[in-house]
Amino acid sequence: MCETIHQHEIVGSFLRPDELKQAREQFEKKEITAEALKEVENRLIRELVAKQKEVGLAFISDGEFRRSYWHLDFFWGLNGVDHVVMDQGYLFHGEETRADSARLSGKVAFNPNHPIFEEYSFLAEIADGTPIRQSIPAPAQLLAELTRGVNEEAVDRIYPDRNELYKDIAAAYRETILALYELGCRDVKLDDCTWGMLADKNYWKARNNETLSIDDLQQLYLDLNNNGIADLPEDLHITTHICRGNYHSTWATSGGYEPVAETLFGKEDVSAFFLEFDDERSGGFEPLRYVPEGKQVVLGLVTSKNGQLEDKEGLIERIKEASKYVPLDRLSLSPQCGFASTEEGNILTEEAQWAKLKLVIDVAKEVWG
Question: Is there a contact between 169 and 143 (Cβ–Cβ < 8 Å)?
Fold first, then answer.
């Protein structure tokens, strides 16, 4: 896989402008057409790309402006997966998410008309040669959603043999990624909250009536992710972002990476790990000792959850601390997550968002030159 990680990085999502939120609301109320909504999306994505270039980012994204969620919109685009509304959303720290979910209606399969292809193609048209990193949720994340609560009843009905489900998920992902490759995509990031859930002791206690042990589930997630990205072209760069939940400036899980580090860092077939280290919930850098030689780590030291700027010298000291476990030349700096994993966005201004990214770039230049 090619080396394309730079010393300053982004996770991908940006705050949705008020105009975009209003247009989406009007579309939901059938006050404007899908074409009118797309016109607004296209114009605002063009403006976002211009701003990313102006700031000096090494990679650009469309800010996930066409999505409501970082993960569900992608799931809904696969054949065999439906958009449903649950009785309850996810319970984050002090807040409940919207209750949308993804449920099986048939066998999971590749969809040649998946919206992700239009997302990428439009961005490629306006990128003018600037590298694009395409973010999609990890295969393990799809499995976690399909087996969430009452969703699992559909899985049991459609896939009496769970191994067939795992094969179909991996195949659908691999075909989707290869189709992106044919469109010119050379950089895909798998966003993944499943490992953060496994690292949280309280989360695991809530699941202690399950038949799978934590070791079994780690192996299942690992195999599913690795099978979904197996035998891809050598010049296709695959990375992953490990998240603990990012909804309206709240979080879902806590805990350092130690419980999952040996499996995740040591065995997942990606070339770089985007990791959250923005507060005490993230634990220390010691688990990075499991990252193999040749793989890179992007340190998410700058929080995207509020607008308060971190101290530059403090960030530099933390990078030096992390370099005790992974050499400096294999480290990079980024925000800990996107600024709007869902269309609600985190609680900070657009000005603060760009100030955060400027800080990331400034610190990276000072540390790595």
Answer: yes
